[in-house]
Each structure stands twice: as C-alpha cells, then as structure tokens.
Amino acid sequence: MKKLFCGLTILSVGFAAADPGVVLRFDDAHPVEQWRQLAAVFDAAGAKMSLALPARHLGGEEQRAFLREAAAKGHEIMDHAYDHALYSCRCRDAAEFAALSNLPFVVETDAPNLRLCFRYRFDMDHPRNRRFRGRVKGGRLIVEKNEAKKFQRPNKVYIPSLGRVFGFMSSQDGEMKLYSFWYPTPAAPPDSPEEDMVYCDQRSFSPGDDVLRFQAGRSRDAFARIGLPEPKVWIQPGGWEPWLTAETFRRVYALEFGYTGADCLVGCEKEGMAADLSLAPFMFRPLPYLDSKAMTPEKIRSSIQDSVEHNRPICFLSHMRPPPGGTWGQWLAETAELLKWLGENNIPVKTFSEVTARMSGITADEVKAAFADAEPWRKERVGVDETCPAPWTPPTWDDSTKTFGCWNRTYRFGGGIMPDEILSGGETLFARPPRLEMDGKAVRVAAPSLSKRSDEAVETVATGLADGYEVKSHVRMEFDGFTWVDIDLVPSPEAKPFASLSLDIAFAKNASALFNSMCKQYMDFKPGYAGAFMPFSLDLFGYESRTMFVGNDDVGFAWHCESLEDWRVEKGEDSLRLVPGDDANHLLLTFVNRPVEKGRPLRYSFGFQALPVKPMIRDWRYRRINGGKPGDFMGYFDWETLHNAPGAEYATADVKERVAKARAKYGRLQWYLAGFTTSPYAKPWIRHGGEWSKTPPAAGTVGSPGNRRSAFCWLCVGSPGYADYYTWTLRDTIRKLGVDGLYFDNQDAQFCSASVHGCGFRDWKGGARATYNLRATREFNKRLYRMARREIPEGPIMRHMSMKSIMAADAFADTLVDGECYCGTISRDESYYNIFSPDMFRAMYRASPWGMPRYLIPQIERSIKLYAKEKGRYSTPEKIRAEIAKHRPAARHFLGYMLVHDTLVWPGGGVDATKFRAAEDKFRLHPGDERFVLYTNGGNPFGYDGGRFMVSVRARGGHALVIAMNDTGEAQTLPRPDAAKWSALGLPAEYGLRNVETGRAPESIPPRDYAVFETVAKSAGKAK
Ligand SMILES: [Zn+2]
Ligand SMILES: [Zn+2]
Asked: Residue 365: its pLDDT value, please?
C-alpha cells in the first residue's frame, strides 16, 4: 500500500506550479504621449508591459494605433471591463442605448448618460455580512461612530424597511450619503426609523451568467474593432464596484471565452486564506507600485528578491501616477532603473497571461474541454429511489398499535411528538415516554396517522394544542430505523409568549450505561468525551458535534440535529445535557430558555436512531485485511492520477494490469475513494467547485498542496448536483474498470454554511452558524450503497471514519475503519496507555451496540514517523528492528484492547496478530454459532470488578478462547471461572488452557499486557 488516507494538512497556498517572474501592470487609459514614453523604456530594456484597458475609455485613432503597435511588439493589452464596471455600462450612442435597454437583465436605465444598469444577485445571509443599527435621514445613513469605522469600500448597505441595497460614501465630516447601487448618483431615499441594517460584503453580490456573457462579448467586440488581439486576461475594475470572485469569473470568462488569467477576489470566507490551486490564475493579485510613497524602489526590489527565493511570480499595479511631490520624469526614470536591475539579475519581466497560464498546471485547452463535457450525470439521479437495500427489510407500520418496525427494532407511539417506547432486540430503551414541556406543562399530540409509506420509509403526522399554539409533529422513519422529527408550533391569535421549551428523554438505567458525544478531536485527543454515563453538556451551537449516543454494550440510541434556527438558549452548553438520575438517565434538550415573542411560527427538528443498525455481515471476525483468502480484502489506493476523481478517465494508464496482479495476490480489492473532498484539478470541480465547496473552510481551501496528485478541496455533499455527479460517475467507473470493492475515506457529515446549498442559519442572536449536513451525507452514502449493491452485489464496502460512529450515515458500508485520529496524540507517550480505558473503549469502538464491525488502525509507528521530535527513526532496517522491539509492549497493549473487546485490528505498524489469527482460524473449525461474552456481561464466568483487568470469553462448539487484558500496573493471574456460568456457555467441566502465543499453561500476565488461551483436553494444558 503506497498511500494511507488523506493526511489532513492544510496549508495556505497561492500558486501551484509557477516560475518566478515580474509582471508590471498599468491600469486605465492615459494620454498617448505617456504611454509612448513608458513603452520606450520597456522596449529599451527588452521587457513586456501589461496594460489593463476599459475599451470605452479609449480616445482617438492615435491611442488605438499605439496600442496595436504595442500589442504587435508583445506587450499585453488586458480587458479592464468595457466601461470600467461590471454591473453597468454606458452605450456608444442613443440608437445603441435604445436597442440594449430591452436586454432582459437591464433593470434600470439612465438615459441622459446612456447608462444601463444590470441585475445583481444579493445573498443577504452571506457569512461575511454584518448587521448593525442605523437609520436614514435626509438621504444620509446615520450610525454610531464606532460602527462607521468598520466600514470599508466599496460600501453597500441593505436597508430592510426600504427593501433595497444602496451604495454610500463617507465625506470628510463623517456624513454618509446614500447613492444608487450601480453608480454614485444620489439616491435620495425617504427617512426611515432606526432598524437592523445589513452591511454587505462584496462577495454577497454576484452577476448572472447573462451579464458576464454580455460584458465579455462587449469587450471582445471592442478589442476586435480596434484591431487588438483577443484579450486573455480580465482585470477587475475597482472603485464603486463589488468584486467578482474567481469562481464566478472562471465559470463564464474562462470556460466560455477562454480567458486564462484575471485579478479577482477569492470567494472564500476569510480573505487571504488558502486558495484552490486551479483558481490561482484568476486571482493573481498585485502589490502597489511607485505611485505610492510607501513603495520605494528598494522595497520593490526586496519584494522581488523574496518572490524569486520562493519561486513564485509577483505583480505590481500602477496607475502611472507619481506619488505626491514626485514628477512623471522621476517616476519614469525609476521604472527604467528597475528594469535595468531586473535585466542585470536575470529576473524576467513577463506579461500577465504568460504568468497565469502556468499557474494552475491546467492548460486553457483542458479548461475548454471541461466545459464541453456533456455532463451525463445531470440526466439520471443514480441511487435516488424508494427501495430498501439488503440486508434491511422494508419498514412496517401497525396502525392499530401505532407501531413502526424495522430490523430488530420497534418504535411505539402514544401521545408524544416522538415514540413513547423503543425496543431494540427486545430491550426497552426508555424509562418512560419522552416529555416535551412548554413553560413546565407537558405538550401532547393525538396518536399519529400514516401520511406516506414506501419500502424506504413510513411517515406519520400528529397534531395537538399547547397554549394557543397548534403543535404539528411530522415523523419520517426509514428502513434502518433512522428517524427525523419536525415539530412545528403554529401560533393562533390566542398564542402567548412562552419562556421555556424542552425535551426530556429518560433512558432505562441499564440501557444507558455509556455515552459518546462524538466530539472528534483529530490531532489531539482529550479523554472525557465518551465513556460511562455521567453529567455532561454539549454545546450544540459549537462545531464539535451535533450528535449524542447513549447506550450499553449491546444496544444504543443516537440523537442528531443539523440546524438550531429557532432555538433560543441563553448559554450554548445548556442546549444538550446528560443528567444521571436514580431511576433513569436523562438526555435533556433545551430548545428555549429565553422568552419567545408572541406570534411567530417555530420549528424544531432533530433525528434519532435506535441501534444496532443492522445485522453484522456474515463471518465478520474472519474477514481480514490483507489476508489473501476469498472474502478478505486489500485496500487499493493508487488507481487514479488525481485525488478522489472518481471518473475512469483519471485512472492510471496501467490500472488494468496492476489490478489483475494485485487481485491474483490478495483477492478482492477495495478501491480508494473520498467523496467529501475532490481534486481541484478534476474537470467537474473546475466548473462547479465554487458551488460545491464547503464553507467554512474557505471555498477552495486546499489540503496537500504542491502535489498535483494529492491536492484536495473540501466540498459539501449537500450542494446541488454534486451527489448526482459522484454516484453517476462512480457507477460508470465500476462498469468500465471492473471495480470489485469500495473504500471510502472520511465521508462523515461536515459543518457548512454555504447558503447556495441551503446550509447555514442565523442563531437567535443573529449570528451566522453552519449547518451540520448529516442528512445530506446520509442521502449521499445511501445512494452510493444502493448503486454499489446493484453493480457489485458481493463487493465489500468499507468506510473510514475517525471517532464519529454515526450510523445514520456510516451504516451504508459493511465495515468501518477507525483510529487514525490518535496519530498526533500518540507522539506524546508513544503508547495508548493514557488514551484507552475500559468504559471509553466500550463507548466508542465495539461492534455490537452499533451493528458494524470496525477495524482500528494502530498509529504508534505512523505517529513516530510523522510527529516525533527525532526524525528518521524508521529509516534503516536496523533502526526499524530496534523501534519495533522498543514498542512491542505498547503494540501488545493496543492489540489486547482490540481482542478483549471483540474489535478488529488492522495489522501492521508494529502490531502482530499472526498467532492470534492462527488460533482463531483453528477455533473457527468447531461447529455451531459463536458467542462472545464481554467482561461486563453478567454471564461472564470470570467476573469483572470494574477495574482495568478484563477477561472476555468466546465460546463455540464446546470450546473457548479466553482473552485476558491486564491494563493495570501490576501482574495479574487469571481467576478461576464460575463453574455454572462456564457450563452455561456449553463448555466442558474438564478442560485445560493453553496460551495461544507461548503454548504454555496460564502464567501471570504482565502489566499492560494481554494473554489469549484456548481450551484443550485437560492433560494437554498442563504439559509444557
Ligand atoms: Zn481601473
Ligand atoms: Zn453545504
């Protein structure tokens, strides 16, 4: 295996593959004589200048002739928008004005100036927008002084009572006059009272594709009329205009018109953060030039030197204006000096397009080809249907008892907004019906009635009344027990304000011994987030987790939510609390503890699922990684040339031969995929990345930059079209390449606030928050599962995740892979001694409460390689042998935890399970079903005192494997088993025990070590 999982390193990058080079850019139209003098200086130095021109601003034939001549000499003439504006343009004459005024995207006209104003899209909930208090008086914006200081150009404000966006400018005396959005013509709006206004970030505006096409066409026509080459570069006009994002620019200018460079804004959440490598050509930002007093020739030279050292290009922007106090002659002489210095130091002066064409590693032809793709996935939504995939069976609904049924579980409804009673495998989960309370009074609804039914889901509705609110509960229950509840509170005229709304889910004590908050700490694990049930609070408004597991060693209950839009909770940590009690353990949800104003409809939505989620796959303990037997599998990682580009076109050239070879050696291969990230170089991302990107992190944030093959961007599986693309393309690849099994990396739910996906919400204080996209992730995984089960019915599906056992989304696989999250933490102690504890391990990593077997990957060796202070500890065969010997105790401690908990181990990394596996294979030959009796189980013959010495038993056909894990600091001896419990497992009274590794009879087990014994005929165990 060459590559293991995505190393989640995030770096800020600007450029992928680029050479050093200096671009000197001069913006806007200037007197032809100045241009001539500048061109003479460049020509003398043999250097190229890059001019950014609004075509409408060009004067007479003399200017045009100069530009033609300059272009012929290789200087670059760039598109600076036809009229130095994107959202408006002035026409050449009245006839043209009359003709163009009818364009569908023209929303305002200004006849005296022949100006057309274009439609813009405004995203009011853009995460960078800010609310503030303000009012309008005499055409001016009145705000508090401190607020005004935060405003930045280009200033745009949305005033709700006027229902419009205005531009505004601050004058010297602090007055802020309101203007039109498009151009600084006074708007003169009526006075308005103080209200919450929206200060608009420029990224919250975007033009329609029709406007962009019109603008690109107009510039290109003008260039052609002048006799200039087609522009390849677009330069954002500044001043009054909100900027275009690189993502939007690329969609039309690059893909439809072949532009290869631009100076746009990155459309990400935080400006200056990492950029998608493939967007780099469209956000080549300049530094100021000599026009600014702060930018001396020395400073310019040192910035250039720095860029050469870092092997990256650099651009300077000038408006051909000497700084205050300077003269044109001085400015020109300093430019000549700079060009001379560049020549002497062999630093090339390049045009803007020469530099940007090399930045992304994608050629203009490839970009055009991406656009030409037919995108067949738009026609068929693969995996969207109402079927129930195996091993599940279609859900049932008994209307007489109001009971929902699915594999191993029943949910019985009474008069609550969720089931009154849940049984999993016959075990009752609740101590009493969950109680929804408004202002201390129980809210009840009538028994639910069936509203929809298919092989996929049963849906019910129920209504009730509470303090003048109509209560509607809509419940959707799917074949795997995943249930989503929407509670609507619809006010009647009598509805009163209320001050509290909460839900108390009371669990039976024995069904709630453990909890798992599923707070994922990838790099530095801290204990305390999972284990024995205890007082705990989870801030659902935060970004660690919006899910909670409560259960025991056999069954469980998982609760989830996505958005908290109508939750009014004073302190976030009160939103979800675990409270132990004498007769029940409580999961308390606080929806409201601040008074809710009267008369607003409210919605509270959440999901839950009783567990285990499905029967475990057959012979799961004996399906092994790298085992080489039928049913075993081998992860197959390097089949594609780009990170997670599922298309067959990205497969390596020799994929078929290599797969045949690997298959002959290992059996079935599981092909590596990672649907939550994709390559910035994959064609669909080039076209749709801006839309598919997860926010935050920033649109286009790249992991593993600098390597075309492993670079990746995060995306939101809830974005429109992405899941259609992915499921269709993967199916196509399975058919074309003969894929036999699938391995999905980290495809768990993410937090996203991109409103184009329907993600993101405002909390009750008005703050922007991200949605936890669990249902979108679930739908995506479900579609992939349905598709895979049809295409490769026997093909194994494995899902890699870390610490988040969220069956709602993860159950669409046969096995899970976990444990990578400790990679950073392990470097501290180089062991799991301070990480694993019995209750924590049981709450997180056993198979039975979830219904999913999982492999844990040991991280000892990998962590040392990546994070240890001393490098190169695994560099030579001798060093490797020494390290393995040194870490044998830590590796045995790790393995012991796996075996005593019936958790599967991913062998390697210093962990050797060979002898155990051999004993297990022998054990398997005994006839009959196998039983695993965990150390906590009352039927375990060896008992358990609650400490760190644990003995579990596997029984089969009158034989046993006894697994003892000693995680104490002292040596321990195996106790004598309880005879009655031993025989209840079908085990003989007369037997011997033999250590499967040493072949010896039981001896004391060293601290932090394990021992596995097999039963043998009585005499054999005693012999050496
Ligand atoms: Zn300009
Ligand atoms: Zn999203």
From this structure: 60
